[in-house]
């Protein structure tokens, strides 16, 4: 299948590691130019060096604080300066802290809103003039909590589902410009984020991470955690020329973990 991704220009948030980096890797292999984004330059430099060896696409990076409007505006400008336009936008951000409603202060709620929802809104708004030029693709990375809330992750449960409402609404508003927008939620994919959550949960339960993993694997029909590249390949299809009719939808890549219909 021809994904028609050669010479496409992709802006990928939170892409120095984890799922964002895995998506960047797949797009570079397909010949896309990729803007890596993160808070720590040393991680971005390492990711750029690794990815640049993989394909024909150009790989650059920008250090960005996604909670700051001026940083997002500068990021979009730099992407356009480097590549000429933006064809693909991957919204992604580190997950908010774990905890219950009683654990969270106004500061927690505000920080999570700014990082996990407002950053998506701002980046879409700033990128839209360029995405409209050729009928762009947007994918918002969320969580399996968009289908089934996760105990102890109230911030994620709240703001990830808000992303779904945003994308569903925009799928209608942006359709006349042939912009397709979808939401993808990872299940238990083997990333740094999942390792952190497993550490927190295991500590609360007073068991080892290995014991916790064995418990969690019982809930995954495929019997294992997913690999970042498995998630990335699906996102790559959604932003590719092979996808011409899927928009406004929410998908899970979770090995069958979530049982909701």
From TrEMBL:
Pfam families: adh_short_C2. GO terms for biological process: bile acid metabolic process. CDD domains: BKR_like_SDR_like. It comes from the Bacteria. Keywords: Oxidoreductase. GO terms for molecular function: oxidoreductase activity. Belongs to the short-chain dehydrogenases/reductases (SDR) family. This is SDR family oxidoreductase.
């Amino acid at each position: 299948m021809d994904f028609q991704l050669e010479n496409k220009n992709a802006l990928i948030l939170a892409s120095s590691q984890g799922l964002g980096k895995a998506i960047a890797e797949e797009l570079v292999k397909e010949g896309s130019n990729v803007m890596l984004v993160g808070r720590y330059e040393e991680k971005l430099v390492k990711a750029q060096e690794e990815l640049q060896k993989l394909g024909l696409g150009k790989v650059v990076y920008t250090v960005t604080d996604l909670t700051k409007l001026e940083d997002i505006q500068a990021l979009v400008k730099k992407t356009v300066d480097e590549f000429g336009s933006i064809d693909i936008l991957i919204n992604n951000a580190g997950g908010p802290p774990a905890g219950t409603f009683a654990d969270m202060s106004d500061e927690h709620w505000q920080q999570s809103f700014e990082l996990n929802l407002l950053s998506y809104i701002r980046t879409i708004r700033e990128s839209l003039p360029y995405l409209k030029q050729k009928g762009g693709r947007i994918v918002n990375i969320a969580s399996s909590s968009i289908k089934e809330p996760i105990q102890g992750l109230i911030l994620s449960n709240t703001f990830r589902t808000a992303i779904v409402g945003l994308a569903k609404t925009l799928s209608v508003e942006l359709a006349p410009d042939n912009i397709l927008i979808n939401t993808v939620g990872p299940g238990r994919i083997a990333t740094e984020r999942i390792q952190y959550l497993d550490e927190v949960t295991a500590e609360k339960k007073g068991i080892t991470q290995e014991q916790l993993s064995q418990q969690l694997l019982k809930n995954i029909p495929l019997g294992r955690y997913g690999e970042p590249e498995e998630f990335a390949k699906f996102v790559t299809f959604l932003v590719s020329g092979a996808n011409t009719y899927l928009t406004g939808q929410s998908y899970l890549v979770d090995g069958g973990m979530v049982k909701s219909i």
